[in-house]
Each structure stands twice: as structure tokens, then as C-alpha cells.
Amino acid sequence: GLPFLEIFVRFGSCPKIVRFYQTYYKAYAEEAVHPDDGGAIAKVHVGINQFLIFREVADDLIPTFTKDKWHICIYITDFSGVYKKAIADGVVYHSDLHIDKGLTWEEAKSANQFRTLKMIDPKTGEQQFTLMMVELLLKFMLASINF
Asked: Under a CB-based contact definition with an 8 Å cutoff, are residues 9 and 63 in contact?
């Protein structure tokens, strides 16, 4: 897999993104300094030697993404806990384009996945970034691999 995915975000976003991943996913996330320019980054550990890196840059460098262009998948162990927090905070995403509706717990459980679209600051509820994430039950993913 990829060792990292770097995503450009607005100045001031990194502390809020770190809180998002710590709060929703119980992920090890930290603020750090980018080795090239000394700018702020949020580094989220998502696997063995794999990271999401959110890099603060000027607004004109941030691409405009639409919800249907790309997404990332995140495998989680606390599937029900993440779902409950995400649905309570209005972060769960629904689209008729996808067969996994995931709006109800039964739909998410049946599909072994649900989607989120908004990355919010858990302290304020303010949206920080738009990134479609497909949350997949880790047990389901492991069960589908033939060892």
C-alpha cells in the first residue's frame, strides 16, 4: 500500500483534524512539522508505517474536491462506536449512488460499512474538510482475505 497520502488543508486546520481522528477513531494522531518547509501538518497513523498527512497550505493551493471524485477507506475495529458518534453528530453520509446506504444501524451493520463526508472539529462542530471516508468493519475485511 501507500506509505502516506498528503492532503492540503487550510491554515489552522491541523489541530482540529487531529482532534477529529482522536475523537471518532481513537487513532494516534499528532501535530508535527513538515520536513520540507516547516509548515504545520496533522499526521494520522492508519496502519503499519502508513499515514494520512494533512498539510496546511495557502487557500489557492487547495484543490476543490466534489464528493463523487474520490474517497478513502478506513478499517475500524470499534465499528458500532464510530457509527453511533458519527450519526449523532450528523457526519454519516448518504447517497443513492451507493448500494450501502448506511443511514440506519441495521443498514450499516448489514453492509459492514458506512460513509462519512464531513470532517468536523469535535469541540465546535465546525466543518474542517470534505473527504469521503468509507468506514469498513475490520473483522469483515480480515474475513475476506484467504491466508
From this structure: no
